[in-house]
User: Fold this.
Amino acid sequence: MYQDFSAKTSPETGAPRLAALRERLALSGLDAFVVPRADAWQGEYVTEADARLAWLTGFTGSAGFCIAMRDRAGVFVDGRYRVQVRAEVDLSVYTPVNWPETQPGTWLMEALPQGGRVGFDPWMHTRAQIEEIARALDGSGIELIESPNLVDAIWPDRPAPACAPARLHPLAFAGESSADKRRRLGAALGVPAAVLTLPDSICWLLNIRGADVPRNPIVQAFAILHADGRVALFADPRKFDADLTAALGPEVEILPLERFEDVLSALSGPVMVDPATAPLAVWSTLDGETVAGGDPCILPKAQKNPAEIAGMEAAHLRDGAAMVEFLHWVDMNAPQGTLTEIDVVTALEGFRRARGATDISFDTICGAGPNGAIVHYRVNERTNRRVTPGEILLVDSGAQYPDGTTDITRTLAVGPVPEETREPFTRVLRGTIAIARARWPRGLSGRDLDALARAPLWAAGLDYDHGTGHGVGAALCVHEGPARISRISEIPLAPGMILSDEPGYYREGAFGIRLENLVLVEEAPPLGDAHRRMLAFRNLTWVPFDTRLLAPELLSGEERAWLNAYHAEVLTRIGPLVGAEAAAWLATACRAV
Amino acid sequence: MYQDFSAKTSPETGAPRLAALRERLALSGLDAFVVPRADAWQGEYVTEADARLAWLTGFTGSAGFCIAMRDRAGVFVDGRYRVQVRAEVDLSVYTPVNWPETQPGTWLMEALPQGGRVGFDPWMHTRAQIEEIARALDGSGIELIESPNLVDAIWPDRPAPACAPARLHPLAFAGESSADKRRRLGAALGVPAAVLTLPDSICWLLNIRGADVPRNPIVQAFAILHADGRVALFADPRKFDADLTAALGPEVEILPLERFEDVLSALSGPVMVDPATAPLAVWSTLDGETVAGGDPCILPKAQKNPAEIAGMEAAHLRDGAAMVEFLHWVDMNAPQGTLTEIDVVTALEGFRRARGATDISFDTICGAGPNGAIVHYRVNERTNRRVTPGEILLVDSGAQYPDGTTDITRTLAVGPVPEETREPFTRVLRGTIAIARARWPRGLSGRDLDALARAPLWAAGLDYDHGTGHGVGAALCVHEGPARISRISEIPLAPGMILSDEPGYYREGAFGIRLENLVLVEEAPPLGDAHRRMLAFRNLTWVPFDTRLLAPELLSGEERAWLNAYHAEVLTRIGPLVGAEAAAWLATACRAV
Assistant:
């Protein structure tokens, strides 16, 4: 079992832990201390050792922070977590704050009108984050002060940091040796060295993978890339066995994490650091000249090479087979009305495990009926809902395979189709198809294509309050920068980028619809005017859409042709990979509309 | 006759005039002098008195500039004018320069490696323009020096500045009194005064119109708006008769243009000036504090009020009737193969004149066959082409009426339809329809919608190298800022804005297709989720598209329904306004596909 369904909240520990923190505040001469959800690696998931916000306050959401003061403690959460925070924290000592509507700077100035000293752990915040708060506090007399971590000081049984074995990511999947990557990127730095603090960048650069963090096959580490291609890697040496150390070779020096600060402070010459992702502590520690620059791995990592693409395609065939077996199982079992959301999540994990998945790529979102309308819903034992015939079921899930990462959403009929879902389902599918079929001139960003996915919904006065797509790593993090299909994404789409294509529609208290495939940016095949070099998406995900929910008369001829061709290809690709019963089910599911 | 078809080029005068300018250069101690196409008002059209670039070099394009030096003279033109410039200037003394690929700063540094003094007339350039060149020259030792206009000094028979009578724009068309506008905008300035240098802003603010400049019903003037609503108007007083002066009232003081500098330099307190549109001379003249801020009239002018919208609608009905009579006339006459492009332009003017047009709103673009592929083509006696059966004809035109401004493009079959035009014609029409039908959440800009117009072309590997739409004034300039439908337009679309919707496709040497209606941004009618406040376009242009050029099987059901409903409405609205023969023709043209 990968996913854990226990309801983790423990509001009752919030008050005594806050009291202990306040003692530390007094001892440190601080008026406030900031406890973010993030760890030093700024990822989406944190380990138990880094779950400081949850340990202190009880709040388990994936984003937010607490500002603890002597007389109050605000828990800042965004729109996704307004309800959840009230269930998880002790409201007699913690005050939920609507963020980003209320900014920490504004809140601090109200709470500390005479000025004051606000501590923070510089390893848990990026320079960009601290600068933003500092700008807001400008002229207020409130000081931001680097401090040891006060939560760690009061957390007696804090779990040890993760120390899972690292492993080599085979060249057959990586497509380029680490030495080649290191020398290529090193030579292009333009400065003697760059600091890397994102674990997926480091894993990509070194062709290694790990298991420190749930759902993401990464190794918690920091690194310094030198212009000559050498790397100093800071991580618990116990993660690296002799074979792996030998494979990394003499140009990669493994040093304990504790040495990172010493080595940083001894670096001379200009050093490149990414203000958007590196902890502020990196800047505070560096003695010499620094150059603000983006993490040099981000763009090469996003533009997958042919081996990475082949791995993603192979993983998607296995994942497609698992999904088809799962969808067949849902159809056999759900209409009886005995399944719960947890049953569904567990069964899906089983089908994927049987196909060689090493983990799920994120906690499955499985929402029956009205739970489908909660965009970031994660079922637990308390919220677990029966999958009721006559409702629809939204399942957004993915897996990690040795060669690739998947992410797919399907929305399913359970028994009789609720008629009010047909039109929005069809409009969401039209949006998914519009992105899948898109062809566009080089130079455009995700922002320039976002409207194509939404126009069919807009035409009916509908929309969705999330982006249309995110980047996806190759056997790495399922949410990977920098490109997105979103109103706010200005990064040009480039060949090799893999993105999700996932429009949706949510009717609060009633149902949710989302349909998601992964797509690969590539050179568009020649067509039309030869001087126009265009890009297009190639589809990676091969799993049928539930056509029982469709209003086919709302599809254009082109959309219908795309859907029928897609289903024919699903049947050809996946049919041979599944057993006879699932194959027969698939043939029916893939019938032309 | 509004439009002039004489081929205006006179390359032979270029050399002696350049020689005269060079004498002035030497006398002034300058190494170079910049001669822009623009005048002090930065508009699209210039009067004869301001046509300095054409007078000096022979180049008559609507954008560009010359940098004249002692040993060379570059004429900088963009992609539209690469061919035309070579026909119009004496190539033995002028060197065409590809702009913006080659920037003036780069070119100057190559030509003046030891540094030098580059003169320019600060009334002919905005601050933003000069700052851009200055940034490029930073560290080169080349100085930019404000200078009297050296072209005026060598232009003995320079025409007198325009002095057409100004007239009141009736309140029935303006919808808000000038006093109300002046007080409303003055109160919102936040500073004691703002300098206005755009004639259409001044005309809009004062509810006046004029005839100084071809195609644009504006008065050449500058103005200062005070926070209390008073305006100092700088213009030739002969343009204002006693009635108009009385109507403007005591809060509008008319002063000779020559007084502008004195009054500017005497202004105290912070004064707002628009760096993007005001001549640099305004900044150089102001003694007190200046605040860079956008022209305060631009946004209120763009968001038309109900009276302005009603005027635009009424003008579009008259213009629609003229266009239908014209299209009927083309169909009766063109298939014989005896018409030329000039005949077509002249006939169209006649139909509009008969409907009360006071001018055309820009020089008509009428391109037969391959001339249709030249996006900014203007026919003259030398290029005039026979409208040949078997070719298609592109006509992009518009008119000024007392109550509104029009702009419409139709692409027409002449005799037998060239089969290779059907698919691109249909795809362009699909783009026009996609914008016309668009509905979108508040807050989006033209950039966010641009892809909707292009997607049908992109799908076939086609595209067009111009924006999808521009703002249009109400009985003002046909190209009006700030909003556009374009990849580079970040201004949110807002109710009351009027834009063109004009995708196209151009096959060089063969044919050009463009289809253009004007559309009005308004609150979308309630539909779908009530909490989503959306905007939509309302159509203003009622003229049939030439369905003989259509490949109807390429339209979706929704597109076909839109087209048929549009044509039914054209017939209902325009049929009663034209004679029996044209009405019968219109009924045929509006038949459902």
Q: What stands out?
A: Chain A has a mean pLDDT of 96. Chain A has 19 helices and 27 strands. The first helix of chain A runs from residue 14 to 28.
